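Hello again,

I reread your note about wanting to compare the complex against the isolated chains. To keep things tidy I'm splitting this into two emails, and this first one only covers the full assembly. Below are the input lines as submitted, including protein chains and any nucleic acid or small-molecule components. They are followed by the predicted structure of everything together. The single-chain runs will come separately.
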Amino acid sequence: MPKGNPISKEEFVDIDKEFQSLLQKVKPKCNAEDIENITTAYKLVLEAHKFQRRKSGEPYVFHPIEVARICYEELGLGATSVVAALLHDIVEDTDTTLEEIDQIFGPKIQRIVDGLTKLDGTYNIENKQAENFKKVLSSLVYDVRVVLIKMADRLHNLRTIDSMPKQKQIRIAAETSYIYTPLAHRLGLYNIKTEFNDICMKINEPEGYADILGKLQKTETDRNTYIKEFIQPLSEKLEELNIDFRVMSRPKAISSIWNKIQKKQVPFEEIYDLFAVRIIVNTDTEKEKSYCWQIYSIITDIYKPIPERLKDWITTPKSNGYESLHTTVIGPKGRYVEVQIRSERMDDIAERGFAAHWKYKGVKNNNDVYDKWLDNIRALLDTQHSDALEFLNDFKSNLFQKEVFVFTPNGDMKILPEGATALDFAFEIHSDVGYHATAIKVNNKLVPMGHVLTNGDQIHIVTNKNQKPSEHWLKLTVTGKARSKIRSAMKEEKRQKGIFGKEALERKLKHAKINFADNIDTLVKINGYNSRPDYYFALATGDIKMPDLKTYEIEHNKILRKKLTAAEIIQNNEHEGKPAPSDTEIAGTKKSELAGRSNILIDGESLDQYEFSFALCCNPVKGDDIFGYLTAGKGLKIHRINCKNATHLLANYGYRVLKAEWAGHSQTNFITDLSIIGVDSGPGVIQSITNELSSKLGINIRSFSIEGKEGYFEGKISVFIKNKNQLNLVMNSINKLEGVESVTRVIKD
Ligand code: MN
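Full-complex prediction:
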């Protein structure tokens, strides 16, 4: 910040007057230590900012004092916030350090100031903006006051934006609409959100703003007369209730009127809800709802209500904590009037949202909407996001949408964004429930996982430990929580699988005496991949073949490039055109009873030299992705890549793992265990499954057991299978049977 003239004596008098007035307001709620801290903070900022001036020319220190006042007066925050607000720009803009703040005020204040310091900065670059936004939210979960003070800071900067050049105003308005306004909305800071909107409109639509402001002023007297006329009969009846209440009314925000004019294409004169009448009752928390309904009844006795305009947010508050009972009635002269009925507590929360919420923390509240929302943000922050933009997208999906209210089988309410699916709900319960969700019932009916939920749905999730997320699930979910969990599961799986590709490649290069580390990036590039993990994954899944080193130009054990002469291209094609090494009998091997004549290639070579068998934990079937593991005394075991033991084997004995693939034809049968889940429809289920398998598909069943549980069944069936295609056919056929919800392959622990 550029140095300006130091504060003059006259200016100091004004500053001190400003501060003393703040101190007088705060005093009643402070102890001696608070007063001392606030005074110390004031002296510190006065000194630190003394050469700085705002764009308007006034001494900078007016700004932190004003932000502190907003925190106290408009947000209802306490002494700690007042101190932190005074100090909010000191680390960023002066030589004062966080260590000094810590020494003077202690770690609590230091942490808040730290949070405020980090949040500042420009939001020009999209990624940087996202990064900063992520910081705002990180601070939100450890101390909500950071975000609230930040809001007060932004509010004061907007209130004094007139002295800024127009271009800067437009940029700040854009940033405000992008981040601060939605966040204020989500935090229930109604007044701040409205003021943000109005100031942004004044910057972006100055003529529209002036027009509506003028019309509101011109019609004010008429409006007030009408409101008096409307309230009068109500007041008489309300007095009879013998409770403490107040009635107030204020016009709709200019930006809201503007939006309505734009959206509905109506002139100002035709907007009927230019104002709302609010009736606020002062009563105990236990009685507030019943009084609200009594007041509703009084109003609708006098004025005819419009039933579809009744909005009951006292039974089910909005997800930003808003509680109120709204109705629209036909008032004198046939004009529609919106009436809002609420208690003082509800009004406090409606006006100051999150800030007021803590005040009523002790009040018994079945649906602590903020706690639930904070839990969501915490979960979102805990999840690995490869970049902040991904995070921002996930977060935004939680910030802007309308909600549906749904229930667990126990009747616990969950709030999800509109459009959320049954699978989203599973992840909302717990990420483990999401990962393993196999069947979902909504209102006692089995539904597809992507079933869109509606208000009041009761959802029951059936899980199976063998179930796991797939790429496809991203299409079935909308919530940030579910999607980020699925994505990270997918990434982890890709990474896990890629390990096999890497190991195999390492062995291959080692064999050819080519240094892995020196050549891997060349190979990745030559083969057209962006990163090592992508390349490893492609190798592991067989998307591409292991590099044939004969087709590369290699000098001094360093891979240079691919050979590309015409002769070699033809040679390559011929090579690839050859039939795969086939069905050769594996001589001298003691195979497991079922390994039979199946042919497996290890690192692309036939398996002649190994004694091998199929691992019993995962029972691979021809066509599965597999790997070989050299055991200590029992030869080579073939496991499925997604076997539960794979991670353990790879982590500890990676050097014993060999890349394996299927080759040739074989008549081998493999034992496969399947788990079947469905609706319990009696003994008919067993019959239809066995009929399908034995008669229709000619599959031999080894064993079959079934168990019924509360409306659904779980069956275990063990069958002989030739290859993966046949297995897929079997699984699809069972899946299509009536009453069957899911079929999965069993992998033993
Ligand atoms: Mn500031």
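For quick reference: The chain has five domains: 9-206, 210-365, 489-563, 583-662, 670-745.

B.
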